[in-house]
Design a protein that fits this description.
Length: about 140
Protein backbone atom coordinates (compact mmCIF):
# COMPACT_ATOMS: atom_id res chain seq x y z
CA UNK A 1 0.00 0.00 0.00
CA UNK A 2 1.41 3.39 -0.99
CA UNK A 3 0.76 6.55 0.95
CA UNK A 4 0.33 9.81 -0.84
CA UNK A 5 0.92 13.28 0.54
CA UNK A 6 -1.66 15.81 -0.59
CA UNK A 7 -0.25 19.23 -1.42
CA UNK A 8 -2.39 22.33 -1.42
CA UNK A 9 -3.02 23.85 -4.81
CA UNK A 10 -3.58 27.51 -5.54
CA UNK A 11 -7.29 26.89 -6.14
CA UNK A 12 -7.85 25.24 -2.72
CA UNK A 13 -6.42 28.01 -0.52
CA UNK A 14 -8.79 29.64 1.95
CA UNK A 15 -7.68 33.09 3.07
CA UNK A 16 -8.80 34.74 6.31
CA UNK A 17 -8.79 38.42 7.25
CA UNK A 18 -6.97 39.61 10.38
CA UNK A 19 -6.79 43.04 11.96
CA UNK A 20 -3.69 43.96 14.00
CA UNK A 21 -3.60 46.97 16.32
CA UNK A 22 0.00 48.16 16.69
CA UNK A 23 -0.72 50.89 19.25
CA UNK A 24 2.16 50.96 21.79
CA UNK A 25 3.69 47.78 20.30
CA UNK A 26 7.36 47.21 19.41
CA UNK A 27 7.96 47.47 15.65
CA UNK A 28 10.11 44.36 15.23
CA UNK A 29 7.90 42.05 17.27
CA UNK A 30 4.77 43.17 15.46
CA UNK A 31 6.42 42.88 12.05
CA UNK A 32 7.43 39.25 12.62
CA UNK A 33 3.85 38.31 13.55
CA UNK A 34 2.46 40.13 10.51
CA UNK A 35 5.01 38.47 8.21
CA UNK A 36 4.11 35.01 9.51
CA UNK A 37 0.41 35.72 8.90
CA UNK A 38 1.16 36.85 5.34
CA UNK A 39 3.22 33.70 4.71
CA UNK A 40 0.62 31.42 6.32
CA UNK A 41 2.99 29.73 8.77
CA UNK A 42 0.21 28.98 11.26
CA UNK A 43 -1.77 26.92 8.75
CA UNK A 44 -1.68 23.15 8.57
CA UNK A 45 -1.45 22.81 4.79
CA UNK A 46 1.36 25.26 4.09
CA UNK A 47 3.28 24.58 0.87
CA UNK A 48 6.63 26.32 0.36
CA UNK A 49 6.13 27.15 -3.32
CA UNK A 50 2.49 28.33 -3.06
CA UNK A 51 1.32 31.54 -1.42
CA UNK A 52 -0.92 30.23 1.40
CA UNK A 53 -1.06 33.39 3.55
CA UNK A 54 -3.91 35.53 4.83
CA UNK A 55 -4.95 39.17 4.51
CA UNK A 56 -3.70 41.52 7.25
CA UNK A 57 -5.06 44.97 8.12
CA UNK A 58 -2.79 47.04 10.37
CA UNK A 59 -4.24 50.02 12.25
CA UNK A 60 -2.73 52.82 14.40
CA UNK A 61 0.65 52.82 12.65
CA UNK A 62 1.35 56.31 14.03
CA UNK A 63 1.73 54.87 17.53
CA UNK A 64 4.25 52.07 16.96
CA UNK A 65 7.29 52.16 19.25
CA UNK A 66 10.98 51.25 19.24
CA UNK A 67 13.11 50.23 22.23
CA UNK A 68 16.06 51.91 23.98
CA UNK A 69 16.04 55.31 22.27
CA UNK A 70 16.24 53.99 18.71
CA UNK A 71 13.74 56.64 17.58
CA UNK A 72 16.68 58.99 17.01
CA UNK A 73 19.24 56.34 15.96
CA UNK A 74 17.37 54.20 13.40
CA UNK A 75 17.90 55.50 9.86
CA UNK A 76 16.03 54.84 6.62
CA UNK A 77 18.03 55.18 3.40
CA UNK A 78 17.07 55.63 -0.23
CA UNK A 79 19.10 56.49 -3.31
CA UNK A 80 18.09 58.41 -6.42
CA UNK A 81 20.52 56.52 -8.64
CA UNK A 82 22.61 59.60 -9.36
CA UNK A 83 26.03 60.33 -7.83
CA UNK A 84 25.58 61.86 -4.39
CA UNK A 85 21.89 60.93 -4.37
CA UNK A 86 21.81 59.12 -1.01
CA UNK A 87 18.98 60.39 1.20
CA UNK A 88 18.53 59.42 4.83
CA UNK A 89 15.78 60.07 7.35
CA UNK A 90 15.51 59.29 11.07
CA UNK A 91 12.71 57.03 12.39
CA UNK A 92 11.06 59.86 14.35
CA UNK A 93 10.84 62.03 11.21
CA UNK A 94 9.63 59.12 9.06
CA UNK A 95 6.79 58.42 11.53
CA UNK A 96 5.67 62.04 11.19
CA UNK A 97 6.03 62.01 7.40
CA UNK A 98 4.53 58.60 6.54
CA UNK A 99 4.10 56.04 9.32
CA UNK A 100 2.58 53.39 7.05
CA UNK A 101 5.85 53.09 5.15
CA UNK A 102 7.71 52.17 8.36
CA UNK A 103 5.58 49.07 8.90
CA UNK A 104 5.51 48.16 5.20
CA UNK A 105 9.31 48.29 4.97
CA UNK A 106 9.78 46.27 8.17
CA UNK A 107 7.38 43.54 7.03
CA UNK A 108 8.72 43.48 3.46
CA UNK A 109 12.28 42.91 4.67
CA UNK A 110 11.10 40.04 6.91
CA UNK A 111 9.42 38.17 4.06
CA UNK A 112 11.47 35.72 1.96
CA UNK A 113 13.13 37.35 -1.03
CA UNK A 114 11.43 35.39 -3.82
CA UNK A 115 8.67 35.68 -6.42
CA UNK A 116 5.90 35.33 -3.82
CA UNK A 117 6.85 38.49 -1.89
CA UNK A 118 4.95 40.98 -4.08
CA UNK A 119 1.72 38.98 -3.80
CA UNK A 120 2.09 38.78 -0.04
CA UNK A 121 2.74 42.51 0.27
CA UNK A 122 -0.39 43.19 -1.81
CA UNK A 123 -2.44 41.54 0.97
CA UNK A 124 -1.07 43.94 3.62
CA UNK A 125 -3.14 47.06 4.35
CA UNK A 126 -1.67 49.66 6.72
CA UNK A 127 -3.59 52.65 8.13
CA UNK A 128 -2.42 55.56 10.28
CA UNK A 129 -5.40 55.50 12.65
CA UNK A 130 -8.17 53.08 13.62
CA UNK A 131 -10.34 53.85 10.55
CA UNK A 132 -9.99 51.35 7.72
CA UNK A 133 -11.85 50.34 4.54
CA UNK A 134 -12.03 46.58 5.16
CA UNK A 135 -15.09 46.41 7.45
CA UNK A 136 -16.98 44.48 4.74
CA UNK A 137 -14.55 41.56 4.97
CA UNK A 138 -15.16 41.26 8.75
CA UNK A 139 -11.54 40.89 9.87
CA UNK A 140 -10.85 38.96 13.06
CA UNK A 141 -8.80 40.78 15.69
CA UNK A 142 -5.34 39.25 16.13
CA UNK A 143 -3.84 39.74 19.60
CA UNK A 144 -0.09 40.22 19.86
Amino acid sequence: MKYKTDWNKKENIERSWYIVDVKDQILGRVSTKIASLLIGKGKVGIVPNVDCGDYVVVINSDEVKLTRGKELKKMYYRHSGFPGGLKEIVFADQIKKNSTKVIEMAVKNMLPKNKLRDGRMARLFVYKDSNHKQEGQKPVEYKI
